[in-house]
Specification:
binds zinc ion, hydrolase, alpha/beta, Lysozyme-like, 8 helices, 2 domains, two-stranded antiparallel ribbon, 8 strands, EC 3.5.1.28
């Protein structure tokens, strides 16, 4: 507790605070409640002026996306991965059109939004920075540890899950996994339905997980955009 006050007032610089916090965290790891306090300190230290990562309006984490800002009521400002590690990608289905998903994520009354929306034509819109915690999983710790991707369509309409959508989403997920060091497997790339405590069923039984994981793996190993574009062209309409 005292460390927090000292850190805020010392003006000793963010690196000093960080190192000290980490040392405290390691030293008391065996003592449960004290470790929790150190953890809390680590999660707030970036709020000291000058510590937060620089951001610019409209800045993207995924270059092929376009930016439309979600309402600030639908996410929480954070500084991931420094305050919360990111180790899950959560797949959603919108139960509506792309435009309606954008609209509700801009609505402060909606109280939920994902980082990204992928359309049936493959377009990707980013609405929340990966630094920040989006309210999309219906579970606080899963919100804090995950990046959420919506897909345009309805869970009971398999025809909504187009080849372009699968491929575009897979490239996005591959990029997220690479950026955050997330393993490409079903333990770390999950459906909203798999989040503990959720009452949501998306992406539903028609979401083709083996196909999706295969595409994510292909995009991960392809690396450069050129190889991914070639893979995209060889696949016909579906
Ligand atoms: Zn969902």
């Amino acid at each position: 507790m005292g460390t927090r006050g000292t850190a805020g007032g010392s003006g000793g610089g963010p690196r000093g605070i960080s190192r000290r916090t980490l040392l405290i965290g390691g030293g008391v790891a065996a003592a449960g409640t004290a470790a929790l306090t150190a953890e809390e300190i680590r999660r707030v230290w970036w709020r000291v002026p000058g510590v937060e990562k620089p951001r610019k309006a409209g800045e993207l984490d995924y270059a092929p996306a376009s930016w439309i800002a979600a309402s600030e009521a639908n996410w929480r400002r954070a500084d991931r991965p420094d305050d919360y590690g990111v180790d899950r990608v959560i797949i959603h289905v919108t139960q509506g059109s792309f435009a309606s998903a954008v609209r509700v994520f801009q609505d402060p009354a909606h109280q939920a939004a994902t980082h990204y929306i992928v359309g049936q034509n493959g377009r990707v819109t980013q609405m929340i920075r990966e630094l920040d915690v989006a309210y999309h999983a219906g579970n606080r710790s899963f919100n804090e540890r995950s990046i959420g991707i919506e897909h345009e369509g309805f869970v009971d309409r398999p025809q909504d899950f187009t080849a372009k959508m699968y491929e575009s989403s897979a490239r996005l997920t591959a990029a997220i996994c690479k950026r955050h060091g997330i393993p490409v497997d079903r333990e770390h790339i999950i459906g909203h339905v798999e989040v503990p405590g959720t009452d949501h069923t998306d992406p539903g039984p028609h979401w083709d997980w083996p196909r999706y994981l295969k595409l994510v793996r292909a995009a991960s190993t392809a690396g450069a955009g050129g190889t991914q574009a070639r893979a995209f062209r060889t696949r016909g309409p579906n």
